[in-house]
Amino acid sequence: MSFESLAVSKAPRSRTDLFVSFTWLGLQGFGGVLAVVQREIVDRKQWMTLSEFAEEWALAQTLPGPNVVNLSVMFGGKHFGPTGALAAMAGLLLFPGLLMLAIVLSFQAFAHVPMVASALHGMGVAAAGMVMAAGWRFGPSLLQHPIGRPLAVALTVVSFVLAALMHWPLVKVIGLVGLVSFGLTWWRLQAKDST
Amino acid sequence: MTLALFLDLFMHFCMLSLLAVGGALAIVPEMHRYLVTDLQLLTETTFSQSVTLAQIAPGPNILLVAVMGWNIGLQAAGGFEAGWTAMGMGVLMATSLLIAAVLPSSLLSYFTVKWLQLHQHARSVRAFRSGMLPLVMGLMLSAGWLLQTASNPTMDWRLLLICALSMLLVLKTRVHLLWLMLGGAVLGAVLGL
C-alpha cells in the first residue's frame, strides 16, 4: 500500500470512541501493542497517515515511559484534552489488565504441560515477526528522508546493530544515533529553507 | 507489607516511569535488580515468568508491572492459601504500581505534545520529528529480534521460519493478527518446538 493514498486522516468521534478503540487495540496486541496500533489506527481507522504515525511514534518512543501508553495520551489529548488522554489510556490498560490477571492465574495451572510451553514458543516468534513487520513498513518513508537514502539506511542499520546485536543500553543508542540523525536532518532542512 | 515499604515501591516505580526511555522492556533489568536482588520480594522464577507472560499475553508491555505488583501483593499476604485477602492485596498492588509506572511519563508526554504543537513549524521541531525515523525503524526491528531470541534462544530454524512467515503475512496480506498468533501456537504445539 502506498501512503499517498492515506494522505488525509480522520478524527475519533468521542471519548467513548477513543476508550473502545484503545480497549480493542490493547486486547489484540501481542508482544506489545505496536504492530496492532499501526494496523488499526493507520490502516483501518485512518486516524493518522503513515508518516504522521512515524512522527508521533518517534516522539512517543523518545519520551520516557511505555511507548503505546504515551501514544494514547498524546493522541487522546490532541483530540479531547485531558479527559480524552485519560479515556484512551484507560482503554489501553483496564480490560487488557484484567485479562492479563486471568491469564496469570490460569498459567500456573498449565505451566507444566510440555505442549503449552511449545505453543507459547510458537506464539512468541509469531509476535516477534509482527513487530519486525511494523518496523519494516517505515521503509518507504526512510527512502525519502531529507538526509538522503544512503545515510538514512546506514543510521537505521547502526541502531539495529547497537541495540539488537551489541545490547547497548538504550539511553546510549538514542543518545548517539538520535543526536547524529537530528543534527544531519537539521542541517539539511536549514540548507533547504534558505534556498 | 508496611506503609513505608509500599511508599518506597510506589516512588521507585514513579522514578522508573521517567527512566523508561524506549519503553517498558527497557526497565526490566532495573526492576530485576530492585525487586529480586535488593528487596527479595520476588523469586527469579516468578520474575522471569512475569516478563514472559506479559510479552505473550495481549496488551501493552507495561502490564508486566501489574503482574509483578500482583505477585508482590499475593506473596506479602501469604500466597493463594490466604484466600481472598491475599487476592485483594494482589489487585491493590497491581493497580498501585501500574499507576505509578504510567502517571509521571503520561503527564510529561501530554505537556510535551502541547508545547510541540505550538512550535511545530520551528526547524528544530521538524528536524527532531523526521530525524528520529532511522532510529525508530532500527529500534523496532531490534525489538522484534530481541522478542524472537527470547522465545527461541537456541535459534531453531523452524521457529525462525514461523517468525519470518508471520512478518511476510503482515506485510503482504490483511489477515487478522489473531490468526497469526493462533497459527504460531498450533505449529509450535504440533511440532513440539
What is the topological layout?
The complex is a heterodimer of chains A (195) and B (193).
Chain A: H1 15-28, H2 34-44, H3 50-62, H4 67-110, H5 114-136, H6 139-143, H7 149-165, H8 170-193
Helix pairs in contact in A: 1-4, 2-5, 3-4, 7-8
Chain B: H1 3-19, H2 28-38, H3 44-56, H4 63-76, H5 84-118, H6 123-131, H7 133-151, H8 157-172, H9 177-191
Helix pairs in contact in B: 1-5, 3-4, 4-5, 8-9
Tell me about this structure:
The complex is a heterodimer of chains A (195) and B (193). Chain A has 195 residues and is mainly alpha-helical. Chain A has a domain of 113 residues. Chain A is 77% helix and 0% strand. Chain A is built from 8 helices and no strands. The two termini of chain A are 33 Å apart. Chain B has 193 residues and is mainly α. Chain B has 2 domains: 116 residues; 59 residues, no CATH class. Chain B contains 9 helices and no strands. Chain B starts with a helix and ends with a helix. In chain B, 47% of the residues are buried. The mean pLDDT of chain B is 87. Classes of the chains: A mainly alpha (195), B mainly alpha (193).
